[in-house]
Inverse folding.
């Protein structure tokens, strides 16, 4: 794939993430603006940290959700942390599902929390796949610029 094609592909994937409300353009662009030559993979590193932290928070949420009696305040605190992390990278759909989870916590609805957690995880995983594809293309684009070639090799 030539450099221009890859550049268009990266731009289309980025636009898709914004248009489909996977990412908040304003928040994500702010992250991108923090990236520079000294830290060229800053955004990818922040997203990677988000996913590592997510695994820890999911574990805590599940433990609290399946313990008896359920401490809905603790569940709400964990999800509040997760929602904040999601907001920091601009993960709109994930953040919105976290808000639904919060509503079920306030209503002390365990079944609703279980269903909402599954939707949070689903949106989280969907975003992960899209971001992995985006960052993979970004890496290929950067390698192409570094190599200074019109075509990229695998």
């Amino acid at each position: 794939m030539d450099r221009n094609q890859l550049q268009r592909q990266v731009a289309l994937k980025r636009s898709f993430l914004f248009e489909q409300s996977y990412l908040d353009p304003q928040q994500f662009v702010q992250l991108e603006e923090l990236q520079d030559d000294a830290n060229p993979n800053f955004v990818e590193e922040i997203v990677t940290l988000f996913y590592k932290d997510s695994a820890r928070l999911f574990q805590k949420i599940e433990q609290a959700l399946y313990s008896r009696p359920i401490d809905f305040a603790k569940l709400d605190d964990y999800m509040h942390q997760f929602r904040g992390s999601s907001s920091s990278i601009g993960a709109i759909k994930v953040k919105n599902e976290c808000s639904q989870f919060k509503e079920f916590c306030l209503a002390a609805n365990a079944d609703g929390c279980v269903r909402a957690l599954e939707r949070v995880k689903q949106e989280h995983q969907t975003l992960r796949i899209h971001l992995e594809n985006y960052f993979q293309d970004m890496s290929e684009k950067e390698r192409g610029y570094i190599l200074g070639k019109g075509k990229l090799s695998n």
